[in-house]
Predict the structure of Urease accessory protein UreD.
Amino acid sequence: MIRRDDPAWCTPAGLPQELLTFSGVARDGLAVGSPGKAGVLDLALAPRAGSTRVVRQYQRAPLHIYRPIYLDPGRPDMAFVFLQQQGDGIVQGDRHRVDVDCAPGSAVHVTTQASTKVFAARDDFATQLVNLRVGAGAVLEYLPDPVVPFRGSRLFQRTSLSAAEDATVILGEVLLPGRIAHDEVHAYDLYWAETEAHDLDGTLLFTDSVRLRPGHVGDPRSAGVLGGYDVLATLYVVCSRMSPPDLVALLREALAEAPDVLAGATELPAGCGAAVRMLGHTSAAVHAAMHTAWNRARIALLGAPAPDLRKG
């Protein structure tokens, strides 16, 4: 049996060969200051006395959380969990794994304390595996802050969702082009993100991939990828509370109020919800559009507007 402090436990299965050409020799990473940390965060949350509480928690540096907070007056039962990371960001050799299990009837919002910075890699790459399980009637919002890939960075990220038919999940991700103030605009080596969703029986609902490799096939500057835009975002709304056509219409109406982004909404396969892809020139414009879409979906599905996350 693989131990949770073993990098193999934290490394996504079936990594693409293109990524493995960057080496990929996982390190123990226990020594202070050494690269290659096997970071683990394993959480289970369940309803307790009218609110959602953490009932199981295992964390291994550099990943950790503090106690959930309850900041939404419209959903006082919802636990807001802020994922934090020791150090400045993800470095080569890092293998991070986050598991969040939401019991039936729970209400959970997971976000990060700040943007995820990905540092340059010379001999390896970094991976992040996120497994989300959402039980019957539960609500999960997983909306981390943007990923910022630095010059020469290499990141593979896989987000796997397993959700009950009557669960409600709002899942988002944002990619910035790099440190623009340092003239780093799509100067990373490789960014590869996969999102997949299944029902609780394991039946595939949908899968989505983003592969960006500057200077190669998949160059973000090419017309068929990002074109003249620099910021990319995706929002998935998985639910049965509203029909997919109505949900798409709702999201399109919301995004009509965000003229500074190029956006499109579509139904997800298997009738499980809707998805939005957004392109923008600035992080501020895309952040505003994401918040608008999240807020509109939240009001329709949860009966409460998006709260202030108090991030400053």
Notes: The mean pLDDT is 92.
